[in-house]
Amino acid sequence: MEIQRKTAVQGRGLTIHREGELVWLTFPSLEETGIVRHLFSTRLGGVSEGFLSSMNLSYTRGDRKENVDENFRRIGTVLGRDMSDFVCTDQTHTANVRRVGYADKGKGIVLDKDYRDVDGIVTNEPGIVLSAFFADCVPLFFVDPVKRAVGLAHSGWKGTVRKIGKGTVQTMTEQFGSRPADIVAAIGPSICGDCYEVGEDVAGQFRQIFSDREEAKEERERIHGRFGQRPLLTDRGNGKYLLDLWEANYRVMLEAGIPADQISVTDLCTCCNPEFLFSHRASLGKRGNLGAFLMLQEG
Q1: Over 50: is that where the pLDDT of 284 sits?
Q2: Quick one: average pLDDT of 266-290?
Q3: 3-state class (DSSP) for residue 170
Q4: What does each C-alpha distance from 290 to 10, 145, 166, 234, 242 come to in angstroms?
Q5: Do residues 45 and 23 make contact, with C-beta atoms less than 8 angstroms apart?
Q6: Is 210 helix (H, G, I), strand (E, B) or coil?
Q7: Distance, CA of 299 to CA of 252 (rounded, Å)
Q8: Contact, 46 vs 74, CB < 8 A?
Q9: Are 12 and 230 in contact, with CB atoms under 8 Å apart?
Q10: What is the CA radius of gyration of the chain?
Q11: What pTM was estimated for this model as a whole?
């Protein structure tokens, strides 16, 4: 299978891991903090069938529960954890971030969630697998190696324009005393700026929130050669635009105070790689869900 990687990205890209049929991705920068285990799934190595094949991680896409359970079990094996250690988001494209702990373990998989409208979760308790799900939207990873805290967020266009990445950093600061300057972050596989077409309604919201002020331009010039030089919106005419969510979330992380050299940006587009990663746009909605997982290790 040929995998299309993008160019001109910040950070050192993603590492591809294989064990039998199971394939998953990690960011070297997060691994190098030495305090977390994490992965981003691909659609390879599970037991789901048909358009859900094979590593579908959603109970709401028409899959058999036994298949999804087995897929989670396999992900848990890679992380060295049980299914009861996962805590899931309740994704409704909000900018809401929730602190989770041991009392939340298993929610979304072996237990019902008792919270709603939560697209970001944070914790400083080891052994809890923060879990969020994707099929074009942007996964955001946050690791604070000083205060030993982690965060994970689901950022579609609504979450991005509402700056859920910045909200996740602020929640870590409020809950754990994290300093943005200490946080190592990553923007995970999702739809790229060459594939994501939006209308004037969405483009207008991004123009309003992400205005290219002179100081913003100067900041991008200061980090010359790094991600941050790309246009956020590209006009295609007839009221259509290409929107770069990687660029937008990178700017959100900079605004939150995370240093540029501590932000890694994906080089894999879900829509460009529909045989490797689930993509809502590429499949016209006939797809499963990918998963992002992040766990603080025992100290």
Answers
A1: yes
A2: 97
A3: helix
A4: 23, 26, 23, 28, 23
A5: yes
A6: coil
A7: 30
A8: yes
A9: no
A10: 18
A11: 0.95
